[in-house]
Design a protein that fits this description.
single chain; 291 residues; Rossmann fold; 2 domains; eight-stranded mixed β-sheet; 11 helices; 8 strands; 44% helix
């Protein structure tokens, strides 16, 4: 499998270099599109079951129709959950069970290009617009809560930083920080020319309507109106460095970091120790009125 993936990467590298012989802009356009291609993993039987047994309805957005899934008492305190890259909403089912037991109303949805989305490509802007559409539909009039996994932290912080909403509890189950290093890794792996990479960054700046270089979870979260911030991260996470959560914990107010040993990046979502800690945490951080 590793050999196969390396071969695909090499073929893409050669393909982009050939295009760049004629046009750096075209090479940048092709690379940027490839970068937005999602590769969702096959759903497990439990995930399929969660989709089939959970109440849901459809709302419209400028990106695509959004299937919104809900679980828990309708009059419960709202908890919106965002999944990570190449994942789906059902990966958060164990966390949903914890929250529902404590009387919360959980709302979940698939990001564009993930889960049951009809799209095959996505980007940070599309994800943010879909989250914004869900928020506008729900239009919370009281404080609520948001929990994210992995890449969901940048989507949530980017979106919430530009809203007036007041959150009681913001929870990041692992977090990245800056977006730019992801692009730099793309440049390194595909051995992109500086001229091509510069045009890719320009496309990202234009899409996001702000410089890619300045987008970071820590900066965006700082602009979110939250009461509590809780961070959960495996010290040995192989996908997102534990240092990301350490930075957030050191830089942001009312923050608590829960560190774990070898519970994995996605496996953490069903880890018994973490779920127990989460249940105790949400009991402690009961909703309060923000002033």
């Amino acid at each position: 499998m590793v050999f196969y993936m390396k071969l695909i990467e090499t073929l893409i590298e050669i393909y982009i270099k050939l295009i760049a012989l004629f046009s750096n802009q075209k090479a940048a356009d092709v690379t940027f599109l490839l970068f937005q291609k999602t590769q969702p993993r096959k759903m497990s039987a439990d995930e399929i079951k969660f989709y089939s047994e959970t109440e849901h309805y459809t709302i419209e957005s400028d990106i695509e129709p959004i299937e919104v899934y809900t679980k828990g008492p309708k009059d419960g305190e709202l908890f919106i959950l965002l999944h990570g890259w190449n994942s789906n909403l059902a990966r958060l089912s164990h966390i949903v069970d914890v929250l529902v037991r404590q009387g919360y109303r959980c709302v979940l949805f698939d990001m564009p290009g993930h889960g049951k989305s009809i799209l095959k490509h996505t980007n940070l802007k599309k994800n943010s617009l879909v989250f914004e559409a869900v928020l506008n539909h729900l239009n919370p009039q009281q404080t609520f809560n948001v929990l994210t996994h992995s890449f969901g932290s940048i989507i949530a912080s980017l979106t919430l930083a530009n809203t007036h909403y007041q959150l009681n509890h913001l929870i990041y189950m692992t977090s990245l920080d800056r977006i730019e290093p992801i692009f730099e890794e793309l440049k390194r792996r595909l051995k992109l020319k500086d001229a091509v990479y510069s045009k890719i960054v320009s496309k990202a700046d234009s899409l996001l309507q702000e410089p890619l270089k300045g987008i970071a979870v820590v900066n965006k979260t700082e602009a979110v109106n939250y009461q509590y911030l809780s961070l959960f991260h495996d010290k040995h996470d192989k996908i997102l460095d534990f240092k990301n959560s350490e930075l957030l914990n050191e830089s942001l107010n009312n923050s608590t970091l829960y560190a774990y040993e070898n519970i994995g990046h996605s496996r953490m979502l069903s880890n018994a120790e973490l779920l127990k800690d989460l249940e105790e945490l949400i009991k402690e951080k009961a909703p309060v009125e923000l002033v």
